[in-house]
Specification:
about 650 residues; alpha+beta; Beta-Lactamase; 5-stranded antiparallel sheet; 20 helices; 17 strands; binds adenosine-5'-diphosphate
Length: about 650
């Protein structure tokens, strides 16, 4: 695990070491062999053994030792000596051999301890943590691979440097205080900012441990660092986002509620486990479940706008149950909310009524955002927008529009006064004349009872006819609230044609109809749709009044269009549309008639729009104009899907 062993510097120093060992060994041998035996020259082999231990493993050291011993013995036999010196020489050789042996033993021992240490140090390289050791003067003495990876300096670059200078350490508290704590309790933990070799900064969670010698004197500090820069950044971003969320939550102009729906979710999950699948049907059949669920929704927090909107003294008054702000009308919307939870929808919104803590009624639009799945729904955001004023304004606008529609109806009927008077007077004259005739039949001797009966029957028929005319006029003139009903368009066309019948006769206009059979009924307000028809027919009549050079014909067609809507076209052979002002036809107060109000088409347009239909105008061929409207047919249910609110007046 010794990286230095493979570096070029390490290779060079190793070569020097080997050379020195060889030179010393050879030198010692020559010197030993030529020197008189009374000197213990061979002891110098100890140096050879110790030096070889710097670069050889155990086996190598043993071999070198044996080599040195062999050279010692060889020198003994080569050395010239006299008999008197033999004893000294032998004892010197024995001492040398013993010294070489002891040196070899110590070298092998130290080598194996070093190997153990190296292995342990190698283990430190395996960890992802950054570990380095510095002495009490902060000089780095050990630098693991993790440190190399984190900081960018190699072992050789870091060892010997003062750690705090190298990494420009920024401490969370004065270094003296940290060292004081380290000396006192032997360890310290905290966050440091280090500068890497590339100049970037790393935030690390740092743990320091103090190493002491046998005399309890501090000798080194082991520093273990974990790079927490990413975590810190993520934490900071999270904190920032939480802070932003809180600030938006607190200061938002709309009322926001943070609610805990976990109990509701658990109850719904329980129902699902019991086999409930159609929650819509279940909640409709078990209103008590819906009512009970209101108290299961816990209000965790509300913002300032909520406190203000619900006229509370403080948010605490609202942090209990939703019961205080719910009304009987809220239950339906709340059931919708439960269905959204059961169907695991991400959002839900509805319009409903709530009440303030002072009991004032609020019309609100509330929207819920559920957290992404899987979630216990313990943090659900509900925003409530107060639309009470808007609703009131809308209602006032609808009332004003209805009033205006009524006024224009009355104005249209005014134009028909003489025609209507004529239409009523006709059956009345017939009644009078038939009455006289009937009386004469009775005065006869003998009375002609059969003839009188026929006349009286005609009188009843004429009376009904007059009554029908008046009934139709009254229906158009009456002022009623908007109703939704099934309207038979064919019947409505016939009724309206009857209203304008006399006016057309007076103006020499021929009414022609082409009505589709078995049209589906449309849903809407009968009087309003009739007003549209009446307006279009009256405009057609007006447009043909000046025409002399061609037949005056008013066509009314009904049909079912490709989308399934019921269409009606009113087509005339009048003066036609002014191409420069076609865009203005449906604008309020646009008129080309001296007595006109210019409200007729604008109101027709609003009525058709409010019924979900379309109204348009185009030139007729070869002359005149076509006004066409379409209305969506009735669906299975009486009300159009998704709209449970009353239809606007216009
Ligand atoms: P008014 O009848 O009081 O003028 P309307 O809104 O009903 O108000 O009509 C606006 C204008 O549209 C009319 O003045 C007329 O110029 C034009 N217009 C409506 N219907 C026809 C038609 N069938 N042919 C030609 N022009 C028409």
């Amino acid at each position: 695990m010794d990286d230095n062993a493979t570096s070029p510097t390490a290779v060079t120093s190793r070569t020097y070491l080997v050379l020195s060992v060889v030179v010393i060994a050879i030198g010692t041998f020559i010197f030993d062999a030529i020197t008189p035996s009374k000197f213990v020259i061979a002891v110098l082999y100890v140096g050879v053994v110790l030096l070889s231990a710097r670069f050889l493993q155990t086996r190598g050291i043993v071999l070198v030792s044996f080599g040195c011993m062999a050279l010692t013995l060889l020198a003994h036999f080569l050395t010239p000596y006299g008999d008197y010196l033999e004893t000294i020489s032998i004892s010197n050789r024995v001492i040398s051999l013993a010294a070489i042996g002891v040196a070899a033993l110590l070298a092998v021992q130290s080598r194996s301890q070093e190997m153990i240490l190296r292995e342990q140090a190698g283990l430190l390289d395996l960890t992802h943590d950054t570990i380095f050791v510095r002495d009490m003067k902060d000089v780095i003495t050990y630098w693991n691979r993790g440190a190399e990876e984190l900081y960018g300096w190699k072992k050789a670059e870091a060892i010997g440097r003062i750690s705090h200078h190298l990494m420009h350490t920024i401490f969370p508290q004065p270094l003296e205080a940290i060292m004081g704590e380290l000396r006192r309790i032997g360890r310290w933990e905290g966050e440091l900012v280090h500068t890497r070799k590339d100049g970037t900064q790393a935030i690390v969670a740092s743990r320091w441990s103090l190493q002491k010698d046998a005399h309890d004197v501090p000798v080194a500090i082991l520093e273990t660092n974990n790079d927490i820069s990413d975590r810190k950044r993520a934490e900071d971003a999270l904190r920032e986002s939480e802070r932003r969320y809180r600030s938006i939550f607190r200061t938002a102009g709309v009322s926001i509620w943070e609610e805990d729906f976990s109990q509701i979710k658990a109850a719904i999950d329980e129902l699902r486990a019991q086999g409930v699948e159609d929650f819509r049907a279940y909640f409709a059949a078990h209103p008590e479940f819906v009512r009970k669920s209101i108290s299961c929704a816990k209000v965790v927090d509300v913002n300032d706008a909520t406190v203000e909107l619900f006229k509370a003294q403080s948010k605490d008054e609202l942090l209990h149950s939703l019961d205080t702000v719910f009304t009987s009308e809220t239950l339906e919307a709340f059931a919708g909310e439960l269905i959204a939870v059961a169907e695991e929808r991400p959002h839900f919104s509805a319009e409903t009524n709530l009440q303030t803590l002072k009991g004032d009624k609020l019309t609100v639009l509330f929207a819920i955002t559920f957290p992404p799945r899987p979630s216990r729904l313990d943090r659900v955001l509900v925003t409530i927008t107060d639309i009470t004023e808007r609703k009131r304004a809308e209602e006032a606008l609808h009332e004003a529009q209805a009033e205006l529609a009524h006024v224009t109806r009355v104005t249209t009927m005014n134009a028909l006064t003489s025609s209507i008077a004529h239409e009523v007077s006709q059956p009345l004259s017939a009644i009078v004349s038939n009455g006289y005739t009937g009386l004469r039949w009775l005065d006869r001797q003998p009375p002609n009872l059969e003839g009188a009966r026929r006349k009286f029957e005609q009188m009843v028929g004429d009376g009904h006819r007059a009554g029908e005319v008046i009934g139709r006029v009254r229906a158009l003139l009456k002022k009623t609230a908007t109703v939704r009903e099934c309207v038979d368009v064919t019947e409505l066309i016939r009724d309206t044609a009857a209203v304008v019948h006399n006016e057309m006769l007076r103006n020499g206009i021929l009414l022609r109809t082409e009505l589709a059979r078995e049209l589906p009924p449309v849903v809407g307000d009968r009087v309003q749709v009739q007003q549209v028809l009446l307006n279009l027919m009256m405009n057609g009549i007006d447009a043909m009044k000046e025409v002399t050079e061609r037949p005056r014909e008013l066509w009314i067609r009904s049909y079912l269009d490709e989308s399934g809507a019921v269409g009606v076209a009113v087509q005339d052979t009048g003066v036609g549309l002014d191409p420069n002002n076609v865009d203005r036809l449906f604008e309020a107060f646009y008129t080309t008639k001296p007595e006109g109000m210019g409200m007729g088409l604008a109101i027709c347009h609003s009525i058709i729009k409010a019924h979900g239909g379309r109204l348009g105008a185009s030139p007729n061929q070869p002359c005149g104009a076509v006004f066409e409207f379409s209305l969506p047919p009735q669906r299975d249910e009486t009300a159009p899907a998704g709209n449970t609110r009353p239809m606007p007046v216009l």
